[in-house]
Amino acid sequence: MKRLLTIAGAASQGSAGIQADLKTFQERNVYGMSVITATVANNQTTEQGIFLRPLEEIEAQFYAATEMVGVDTIKTGMLFSADIIEKVVQLIDHYPVPHVVVDPVMIGKMGSQLLENEAIQTMKQLLLPRATIMTPNRYEAAKLLDKHPSQTKAELIEDAKALYQFGSTYVIVKGGRIEDEAIDVLYDGERVQLFHSSPVHTIHTSGAGCSFASCLAAELAKGKTISEAVDISKSYVWYAIQYALNFGEGIGSVNHAAKRMYS
Ligand SMILES: Nc1ncnc2c1ncn2[C@@H]1O[C@H](COP(=O)(O)OP(=O)(O)O)[C@@H](O)[C@H]1O
Ligand SMILES: Cc1ncc(COP(=O)(O)OP(=O)(O)O)c(N)n1
């Protein structure tokens, strides 16, 4: 079984972050491990706060996973501060793996700030050049490029090309629902590839981004090509959104088990 390590924040309401990553790893038949960078105890009605883990604890978690079990692929999510990014980069350099999937999460759907503005520069300079693939949505792409969020397919393509300058081997910009399709744009420095699916008309999409990046990491670890891994991840998340969980209040969670249950 391939061994996957997510370095991300815990999302107490269960849809996103570490919780989404581990649920997705289980669904994709890989062995999941975690380094928790922070605990996000927010939902749409309460703001209990964001509790950062000390750098020493982040390092200890990383070694607990790499020394005892070993890691085939790393996925990063919420890293919050420049200090945490620097620590994670140091750890990744110490333990090289074939694939690092960087999901540059910035703002959660519940409104939580998951990356400090001052940390964006550090992410661009230190983390993105180490990524096999970076997976921003169009809002994160806009922040990284210091522009307005793209509204059209043509603009998403320009974003993917511009983001490639930050040094990841591949870039995928997730359009989400745009031009009445769910379009993602993959760029490898030469070729643009578009991935389409029908849009699901729902607000219950919390965790879609984390689950997409985790599925991508799992499939790359299993030896799939980038295009195959994106295809599988798009289908995995489409089912997760189509069969999303509405808990009766606010934005509901994607259903991480939906592809297994309903396809
Ligand atoms: N309403 C939707 N219907 C179908 N696919 C969607 C929808 N919203 C997002 N997606 C797809 O889900 C994946 C994750 O999207 P992303 O934009 O990262 O979600 P998030 O809103 O959590 O950031 C992408 O492949 C995207 O195209
Ligand atoms: C702790 C934590 N990490 C990441 C996210 C962002 O999740 P994502 O799947 O990209 O999008 P939403 O859940 O915000 O829809 C998060 N919310 N919490």
UniProtKB/TrEMBL annotation:
Question: Any idea which UniProt keywords this protein has?
Answer: ATP-binding, Kinase, Nucleotide-binding, Thiamine biosynthesis, Transferase
Does the entry feature the keyword ATP-binding, yes or no? yes
Catalysed reaction(s) here are: 4-amino-2-methyl-5-(phosphooxymethyl)pyrimidine + ATP = 4-amino-2-methyl-5-(diphosphooxymethyl)pyrimidine + ADP; 4-amino-5-hydroxymethyl-2-methylpyrimidine + ATP = 4-amino-2-methyl-5-(phosphooxymethyl)pyrimidine + ADP + H(+)
**Single GO molecular function:** ATP binding
Which GO annotations describe the biological process of this protein?
A: thiamine biosynthetic process
Return the InterPro entries for the record. HMP/HMP-P_kinase_dom (IPR004399), PM/HMP-P_kinase-1 (IPR013749), Ribokinase-like (IPR029056)
Keyword Ribonucleoprotein recorded: no
Listed pathway(s): Cofactor biosynthesis; thiamine diphosphate biosynthesis; 4-amino-2-methyl-5-diphosphomethylpyrimidine from 5-amino-1-(5-phospho-D-ribosyl)imidazole: step 2/3; Cofactor biosynthesis; thiamine diphosphate biosynthesis; 4-amino-2-methyl-5-diphosphomethylpyrimidine from 5-amino-1-(5-phospho-D-ribosyl)imidazole: step 3/3
GO cellular component annotations, sorted alphabetically?
A: cytosol
Family annotation (SUPFAM superfamilies):
Ribokinase-like (SSF53613)
Residue span, Pyridoxamine kinase/Phosphomethylpyrimidine kinase domain: 12-255
Alphabetized Gene3D superfamilies for the sequence:
3.40.1190.20
Give the EC number: 2.7.1.49, 2.7.4.7
Query: PANTHER family, alphabetically?
Result: HYDROXYMETHYLPYRIMIDINE_PHOSPHOMETHYLPYRIMIDINE KINASE THI20-RELATED (PTHR20858:SF17), PHOSPHOMETHYLPYRIMIDINE KINASE (PTHR20858)
The entry assigns this protein to a family as follows: Belongs to the ThiD family.
Query: What is the name attached to this protein's record?
Result: Hydroxymethylpyrimidine/phosphomethylpyrimidine kinase
Q: Give the taxonomic lineage as stored in the record.
A: Bacteria, Bacillati, Bacillota, Bacilli, Bacillales
